Amino acid sequence: MSVVINTNTAASTAAFNLNISNANLQKSLARLSSGSKIVSPADDAGGLAVSMRMTAAIRRSEAAATGIQNAISFLQTQDGVLKTAGDILNRIAELATLAKDVTKSDTDKQNYDKEFVALREQLGNLEKTTFNGVNLFGTDGTSTLNVHISEDGQIEAEIHQAALQEAIQTILNAADDALSGDTLAIEDINEAITQVATLRAQNGGEASNLQFALSVLNINKTNLEAANSRIVDVDVAEESTRLARYNILVQSGTAMLAQANVSSQAALRLLGL
């Protein structure tokens, strides 16, 4: 092997390899410390682009899930009010039947009227109930709210602002002495009860539909997260193995560079220096 002074090829090669090993070591350390395989766009430009799209879809899925859960809460509140309306109507039906009892005095019937008036007022107040400022009930059966049930906003489900007023209008229009005066037919009360029951059934169907939509949305979100994890999340065991390898290469490269620099001293010894 030639002994030269101007060029130390062995040292240059050792330095080049050491720089590569050191760069890989720094990347491995960055991946382990961040938990991500993609520390900078240069690591995987295509993977980063896919990951960003998936992350956006995941965030939209979370927002859509929140919207569905809020809609379910809306329906649960609506159903609670409808149940209360049914209970009030049942009590009015009971009072109407009691008022027909021939053994009841006029005073008894007037007391029934007083309770009926209070119940009628409460029934009228129920239709004004809101959920976070949004009316639970509409004036007819056509009032609906659209709920986004997909992360891209392309699929919607309708929920109704139930027509409670329409169902109880006969009761609300009844006179104050409807029971004692026998002007409110039990058949009319039963019809109102039937309509409220129908509204509750409609409410239950819509809530069930939203529950299924929420389940599908959560499944999609879970799989998006898993796919995104495969792109960006570092395998700690695998990366730790790489880290150990690069660490050894840096140490050995440093030693070889030192050895290459020492070998150049042979030229000086030949010159007697």
Q: What's this, in brief?
A:
By secondary structure, the chain is mostly helical. The chain has helices at residues 9-34, 45-99, 106-126, 164-172, 186-232, 236-263, 265-270, and strands spanning 130-131, 134-135, 144-148, 156-160.
> What is the CATH H-level superfamily of the domain at 46-231?
f41 fragment of flagellin, N-terminal domain
What share of the residues does DSSP label as strand, in percent?
5-15%
- End-to-end span in angstroms? 21 Å
Question: What are the secondary-structure elements, in order, as H or E?
Answer: HHHEEEEHHHH
CATH topology of the domain at 46-231: f41 fragment of flagellin, N-terminal domain
> Which runs of at least 5 residues are low in confidence (pLDDT < 50)?
none
CATH class of the domain at 46-231: Mainly Alpha
Radius of gyration: 39 Å
- Largest beta-sheet characterization: 2 strands, antiparallel
Quick tags:
single chain; two-stranded antiparallel sheet; two-stranded antiparallel ribbon
Chain-wise SSE layout:
Blueprint: H1 9-34, H2 45-99, H3 106-126, E1 130-131, E2 134-135, E3 144-148, E4 156-160, H4 164-172, H5 186-232, H6 236-263, H7 265-270
Antiparallel strand pairs: 1-2, 3-4
